[in-house]
Amino acid sequence: MSQINSCVSVLGIIMAIVRFFFREGSPFVFSVFIVLFSLQSIPLLSLPDSAFGMFIASLFSLIYLAMQMGLSAFNRVGQDGPLVDLFLSLIPLFTLIIIAVLFVVGKMPLSLFQVLGLGTAFIVVMMDIIFNTLILFKMNRLASDFVQME
Question: Which of 19, 64, 66, 104 is the 20 to 30 Å CA partner of 4?
Fold first, then answer.
């Protein structure tokens, strides 16, 4: 019986980690990807400067956007989740701003491939911030209006 309880507790921990990754962890993972993409100094983790490398970078950005849109579509209405989601969505934006400042100052040289990939990531982050948070705030406002009507 104790083995079953320990298996259930381990499974609960794994599910909590997966839940964190899909809810709050995706902006952190995307920020780490942006930093690794902008560095490109680690040969094992660098993407080739070709169409395939841009495809991988764009695919990773679109997966992040799809995860964020799915979370906003299935978010519980009437809670203060949109404010937390807004602040978490700002983390990749701050990462991109820091990289852009370092590029302008000259501390981080970027190739054209990296600038285009980071531009794609910027567009995806802005879509996440603007559309998803607007959807979440609108849903919460409609939910509070509905509650007041009853």
Answer: 19
Residue 14: inside a domain, yes or no? Answer: no
3-state SS assignment for residue 106: coil
pTM of the full structure: 0.75
Q: Kindly state the tokens that stand for 36.
A: 């690794």
Q: Is 102 exposed, middle or buried (0-12, 13-18, 19+ CB in 10 A)?
A: middle
Per-residue pLDDT at 94: 94
The secondary structure of residue 54, as a DSSP letter, is H
Alpha helix locations (H) across 74-132?
A: 81-105, 112-127
* Gap between the Cα atoms of 39 and 49, Å rounded: 13
CA distance 45 to 23: 25
Dihedral of alpha carbons 129, 132, 134, 137, sign: negative
Whether 49 maps to a domain, the answer reads yes
Number of structural domains (the chain) is 1
Task: For residue 69, count other CB atoms closer than 10 A to its CB.
Answer: 15
